[in-house]
Amino acid sequence: MTDTLSAAGGTETRVPVMQATDLVAGYLPGINILNGCNLDVYPGELIGIIGPNGAGKSTLLKALFGLVNVRSGSVTLKGENITGHKANKLVQAGVGFVPQNNNVFPSLTIEENLQMGLFLRPKLLKERLAAIFDIFPVLADRRTQRAGSLSGGERQSVAMARALMMDPSVLLLDEPSAGLSPVRQDETFIRTRRINKTGVSIIMVEQNARRCLQICDRGYVLDQGRNAYTGTGRELADDPKVIELYLGTLAKDVEAESGPEAPGAI
Ligand SMILES: Nc1ncnc2c1ncn2[C@@H]1O[C@H](COP(=O)(O)OP(=O)(O)OP(=O)(O)O)[C@@H](O)[C@H]1O
User: Fold this and answer.
1) What number is the ipTM of this complex?
2) Is 26 close to ligand 1, i.e. is its CB under 6 Å away?
3) Which end of the chain has less Cβ packing within 10 Å, N or C?
4) CB contact at 8 A, 205 and 58
């Protein structure tokens, strides 16, 4: 599906950067986790996906990135069908993915981690490192430090930076603030918005639903593998039903679970 906009002198048809239509997907035979999900992200948008534990948010990201078997429905990238394409092919086509856990190579330095993100186009290393260090200046200062010695927030920065090395059109972020203190969570959200402002479309799954809705252009509430509510971040954050069902305790729970983290993190 495309969106037709009025523009000076005529109409302009916008093609979504990425679009999922009626996605059904799951891990085990006969058990579907996604039960007909729909999602689209247009150029330059920051999309938030929220919902209760087990709703299928991470599974949706994995289905977009070819990491879980799509049983029916489709995924397109700039209008091209990419349903079921493998992750390496998707990276080459302009999709970046930052998983929630195990998202850095701990024994490698920060710079080596970033280099790994560009192994498909090593000739661009100097140029891409300069662009990334512009967004993450602290990574440049600490480029020789091993990723295994970094805090959770710092690792998250390295993982995001690595995914950006290929200069993706769309970046998929799986709970980037998970396990971080409130201050580090805030830094992560600000950084995510900054990356988005450089022109990268972003689809972000988040447990910190309120904060996610504050920064995203549009959001999707998933429940039991289906779209429950969709709207702008503001519309969802102000919707009494969404507040009652999904925001009331969720944000408080996440804040209570977040532990302190060392100062001076990236
Ligand atoms: N590798 C797997 N094999 C089998 N079942 C899985 C696998 N990964 C996730 N699931 C199941 O899929 C369901 C949805 O999980 P998913 O991680 O997508 O939910 P979520 O909305 O991201 O939840 P959370 O906020 O708790 O991370 C859960 O019931 C989970 O147990």
Assistant:
1) 0.97
2) no
3) N
4) yes
